[in-house]
Amino acid sequence: MNKKFHIKKGDKVTIISGNHKGSEGVVLTVDREKERATVEGVNMVTKHIKPTAEKPEGGVKKMEAPIHVSNIMLIDPETGESTRVGRKQDENGKLKRYSKNTGKFID
Known about the structure:
With 107 residues, this protein is mostly beta strands. The protein is 0% helix and 43% strand. It is built from no helices and ten strands. The protein has a six-stranded antiparallel beta sheet, with no helix packed on it. Strands 4-5 form a two-stranded antiparallel sheet. A hairpin with a 6-residue loop joins β7 (72-75) and β8 (82-83). The two termini are 23 Å apart.
């Protein structure tokens, strides 16, 4: 099951719904099976780390939790505004993402 999403790792995105609506960040990871993405600085949770031989101090760590990809919208690199994403073939016949606002390829 190889799903294609409108976002991928390294994209600058904005959050369009939920508690963090309006926040912006860079996509750190994308989980295709669970349809979730981790965005830098968004949906921060507290994780308790148990002391181990490698990390004897343990402690409490703040980290990003994944959010559903339907709540994320790509920011167009040219205009800096959020845009819907489509796919069409380039001159070589390869399928690429493009901005529906400007009509230009993103990658």
